[in-house]
Amino acid sequence: MRAIELSFLFAVLCMLYKASFLCFLLLNKSYKVAIKKGKNKEARRMKKEKVVGEKIKSAVEFLGKVKEVETLVKSVDELAKAIGKKIQNDDTLGSLQDKNGSLLAGVHSVVSSIKTKLEALEQTVGVSDELKKKVSTVKTESKSFLDKLKEGNAELGIEGATDENAKKAIDRIGKNDGDKGVVELLRLNKVVDELVISIKAEVDKAVKELTSSVKSEPVQSSN
Which residue ranges does UniProt annotate as crossing the membrane (predicted)? Predict the structure, then answer.
């Protein structure tokens, strides 16, 4: 009888051992699967962050180049302040009426210089078609402004270009109804402003996307 009890006990212990070993294998397998899933999730998160990071980098670089164009266009406002002026040997500008031919030629040169920059922006990889379309609009409006200046070359393309005609051509602040280029310059400024706003929105959107990715998918521990 004692032998039977011992045999039964031994059999039970063997069953418990096998069950324990089986549980160990299952738990170990589950643990490895969990680690693998965690690593896969982390890999997906890192891949997503890389894509979004590259998007942010491209948008910021694009914005920087757009700001260069904006600076050139806005510089016309500063040049317009020199209408009818000349340099003196002090900190003020003196009067030099009706001698604005060179000044207007300078404005033409400045705006012409943005053409190459805009064409490069149109070919930028990784930028939305919507933004490229806005770049093309800026290029079109800059051409319209230059064409208007060339159209008035009889009055604007001479050394004795009058203060009044010069203001009608480039002084969008003091002569916003000017019919020799100001109307076109106003449109050019408007589309440049819209382009800058749009690209800033793209940058903000990408940053929010990256922030959301980090918050929604925390790094999984593999220990």
Answer: 6-27
pTM (global) more than 0.85 = no
Amino acid at 77: D
Q: Helix, strand or coil for residue 83? A: coil
pLDDT digits (tens, 9 = 90+) for 58-77: 888 999 999 999 999 999 99
Helix (H, G, I), strand (E, B) or coil at 133: helix
Among 170, 173, 139, 172, residue whose Cα is nearest residue 152: 170
What is the C-alpha to C-alpha distance for residues 90 and 95, in angstroms, rounded to an integer? 13
Q: Confidence band (pLDDT; 50, 70, 90) for 19?
A: low
Tokens of residue 81, six digits:
């302040």
Dihedral (CA of 65, 68, 74, 76) sign? negative
CA distances from 211 to 43, 53, 183, 215, 218 (A): 17, 11, 43, 6, 11
pLDDT per residue over 105-149, tens digit each?
999 999 999 999 999 999 998 888 999 999 999 999 999 999 999
Q: Which residue matches tokens 């020799």?
A: 180
DSSP state of 93: E
- CA torsion 96-98-103-105 (nearest 10°) is -150
What is the 3-class SS of 24-37, one letter each residue? HHHHHHHHHHHHHH
For residue range 178-222, list pLDDT tens digits in order.
999 999 999 999 999 999 999 999 888 878 877 776 666 554 444
